[in-house]
Amino acid sequence: MTRKTVRIAMNGVTGRMGYRQHLVRSILALREQGGLDLGDGTVLWPEPVLLGRREHALREIAERHGLDHVSTDLDAVLADPGIDIYFDSQVTSAREEALTKAIAAGKHVYTEKPTATGLDGALALARLAHDKGVKHGVVQDKIFLPGLLKLKRLVDGGFFGRILSVRGEFGYWVFEGDWQPAQRPSWNYRAEDGGGIVVDMFPHWEYVLHELFGRVRSVQALATTHIPQRWDEQGKPYDATADDAAYGVFELEGGAIAQINSSWAVRVHRDELVEFQVDGTEGSAVAGLRRCRVQHRSATPRPVWNPDVPATEVFRDQWQEVPDNAEFDNGFKAQWELFLRHVHADAPYHRDLLAGARGVQLAELGLRSSAEGRRIDVPEIVL
Ligand SMILES: NC(=O)c1ccc[n+]([C@@H]2O[C@H](COP(=O)([O-])OP(=O)(O)OC[C@H]3O[C@@H](n4cnc5c(N)ncnc54)[C@H](O)[C@@H]3O)[C@@H](O)[C@H]2O)c1
């Protein structure tokens, strides 16, 4: 076995996603398992360079995990020929500029979504990466959730017959920050800082719908700000200028209709923080983060509407659990592995900056639909 070190500049590791999911649960987890075996006698050994604005915070993380390299100088890191990959999990508004520099410097790039704040910027990134011949990937973690992997298995196995509709319910209560601290960063609630639930969640819904059921052909959305004032990390009140809930209807290629509610102002009366119900002519399924339950046509009860008598059936009991039949790794790590194989072993990879741009496009058109009060076609984008 030869060990090949791959040096990854990780920008934004002091943040929620950058630290927990990407550094600890993905890159450090890969090191704990001895690196990534490429299957050709090579083991990739990821060597992160922690990049950011606050040196003391980076050094603190490096010490906690026994890492050697930190930097606050993006340009210097990008000028270093020893750096193979640039990864970005900064706040959304800082992403496009940093990614542009990294691609221009000839680095392979892997990034959180949304890739940019608008479609033009997202497409420009995809085109630049294509012209420069670098490899590029965008985080699409939801598709790797155990519940959605099981749902995909059902779709691939033809369980549903003709798929009619998809109902998604995502959200939970995010505290305003006054009497209990908010559990999400305050920039998420300020449009001027790249916040908003549409730009955050519609990119996820784009690839989930696209990969499982068909490309989104049109969108009709109503985005709103239910909670107009919140309190930030310092306990200071601020105006919540970004949308914190969005109610969307999506027409899909192949004819299914999807309807997804996304909200940070909803209290959870569900089994999981996101759930999708899929109804098809042959059967239905309800998938969440981890679980997936089905009801086949042959086992569908016959409910009869009669408000004069109390319900005698426990409807949830009429569904059957889909077994795991596999061990599911952390989704972020699974996707890092695919991307590293793409970079170092040329494995095929389609979750790229063009796919990322589709997510940005859906968010942009969703917001336009809401502002104009109409349904909007989603044209297919090309490089
Ligand atoms: N894939 C997912 O499920 C998922 C979930 C949440 C967030 N995200 C995305 O990840 C990115 C980071 O989100 P987060 O929740 O980790 O945010 P966060 O606020 O916790 O972290 C932001 C990071 O960006 C850095 N940063 C750089 N420039 C900054 C600036 N001008 N102002 C403030 N911080 C700056 C911060 O230091 C920090 O390291 C966002 O683009 C978001 O859309 C993805």
From TrEMBL:
Keywords: Oxidoreductase. Residues 50-137 form the Gfo/Idh/MocA-like oxidoreductase N-terminal domain. GO terms for molecular function: 1,5-anhydro-D-fructose reductase (1,5-anhydro-D-mannitol-forming) activity. It is an enzyme of class 1 (oxidoreductase). InterPro entries: Gfo/Idh/MocA-like_OxRdtase_N (IPR000683), Gfo/Idh/MocA_oxidrdct_glycsds (IPR050463), GFO_IDH_MocA-like_dom (IPR055170), NAD(P)-bd_dom_sf (IPR036291). The keyword Oxidoreductase applies. The keyword Phosphoprotein does not apply. Its EC number is 1.1.1.292. It comes from the Bacteria. Pfam families: GFO_IDH_MocA, GFO_IDH_MocA_C3. This is 1,5-anhydro-D-fructose reductase. Residues 149-285 form the GFO/IDH/MocA-like oxidoreductase domain.
